[in-house]
Specification:
Elements (H helix, E strand, L loop, with lengths): L2 H14 L3 H19 L6 E5 L6 E10 L8 E3 H7 L8 E6 L5 H29 L6 E10 L2 E5 L4 E4 L15 E12 L2 E7 L3 H11 L1 H4 L3 E9 L3 E8 L6 H6 L4 H9 L4 E6 L4 H8 L7 E5 L4 E6 L4 H5 L4 H10 L2 E6 H11 L1
Parallel strand pairs: 2-3, 7-9, 11-12, 14-15
Antiparallel strand pairs: 1-2, 2-4, 5-6, 5-8, 6-7, 8-9, 10-11, 13-14
Helix pairs in contact: 2-4, 5-8, 9-11
């Protein structure tokens, strides 16, 4: 150990965020391991490292006793008094010893392995700490490779994994391509942090709107809820805290530029922007757009609603394979039944 190594540790701390004390502790542990492994069966050895000079000293730790039974582990009180008059029975005294001739070479080899291992562990912990708690955050990465359908994305210090289920259906990913994803989950495994990414989660659309629409970022416009079927269609409900700021117009942007940027990012997925309303019947009617709604009857207790639409709007309200009403139900949190105006009239006549 010398000042050059200490300087290297300072650089390591600055460049990789690994605290110098962590590496010094690793070195101490390595030197102790090396000595015990190669020169002594005893375990009562410790190492001190001078933080200024980088020099290390090897000590044998002995317990102060009245009658010595094991010279490797114990020291008499009488002898201990020569080292420090204040030492009492039961105290631990550190006695400096000179390492054997080959200790430097053998310990260095052992130390190098242990130190590298500790550094790798510290790096993994540092990376995990950087990403832990960032679930739903948006990150930009570079596509690296594909393996069994999973896409590995370079996030800088670590690769994230975009599994098949979290990809946008029909989307392809080319090595070197920059893509935006949200962090779905951060796991701490034995091999380090495992970052699971998503491009199909509704949070991706939410974060993209926050990036593209300053009024959302500033809290003037709020996103109430999002319902998404990735690769096909998304519904997003918004409202404004400022009566002078029109939420849909702000989200769409001048000549549609804001929403277009988002659509381009998610592979031309359709986006319906609707107004949230505290009145559930109005909110449900809005959520079923672009279909025109004649009437909504809501059952607050059961969270069910019946929406009446013109006969020629029935298929539009339901949507292809039921997608429109399905997304509206997810968006509002209500179970929604759609009936045509003629069906409604028939039911009314029967009730009369």
């Amino acid at each position: 150990m010398n000042k050059d190594i200490l300087n290297a540790l300072w650089e390591l701390e600055k460049e990789k965020g690994i605290p110098k004390d962590v590496v010094l502790d690793a070195i101490k542990s390595a030197l102790e391991t090396g000595y015990k492994k190669n020169f002594s069966k005893a375990t009562n050895f410790s190492v001190d490292i001078d933080n200024v000079t980088g020099e290390y000293k090897l000590y044998q730790n002995k317990t102060v006793v009245e009658n010595v039974e094991n010279k490797n582990l114990e020291i008499s009180q009488e002898e201990a008094k020569f080292i420090d008059p204040k030492l009492q029975l039961g105290d631990i005294v550190k006695i400096e010893i000179k390492p054997k001739k080959d200790f430097g070479r053998i310990a260095a080899q052992t130390a190098r392995q242990v130190i590298l291992q500790k550094i790798r562990e510290a790096e993994r912990e540092s990376i995990f700490s950087e990403f832990y708690g960032r679930e739903s955050d948006i990150v930009t990465g570079i596509v690296q490779r594909e393996n069994k359908g999973n896409i590995f994305v370079d996030l800088g210090k670590i690769e994230g994994i975009l599994t098949v289920n979290e990809q946008i259906p029909g989307e392809t990913y080319k090595p070197g391509e920059r893509i935006k994803t949200v962090i779905l989950e951060v796991k701490n495994t034995g091999k380090g942090a495992n970052i699971l990414l998503s491009r199909s989660h509704p949070d991706l659309v939410k974060r993209l709107f926050e990036l593209e629409v300053p009024e959302i970022h500033d809290g003037i416009i709020e996103i109430y809820s999002i319902a998404r079927e990735a690769g096909s269609r998304t519904k997003i409900a918004v409202f404004s805290h400022d009566p002078n700021v029109e939420p849909i117009g702000s989200c769409v942007g001048n000549k549609g530029i804001r929403v277009k940027n988002i659509i381009d990012e998610i592979n031309q997925e359709k986006i319906d922007i609707i107004i949230y309303d505290k009145d559930p019947e109005k909110f449900i009617a809005n959520s079923l757009g672009p279909a025109k709604i004649i009437k909504v009857t809501a059952n607050e207790k059961e969270k069910t609603a019946v929406a009446v639409v013109p006969d020629n709007q029935l298929s539009l309200a339901i949507g292809k394979e039921g997608q429109n009403v399905r997304l509206a139900a997810k968006l509002t949190g209500w179970k929604i039944d759609i009936i045509s105006e003629s069906q409604y009239m028939e039911q009314s006549e029967e009730e009369v």
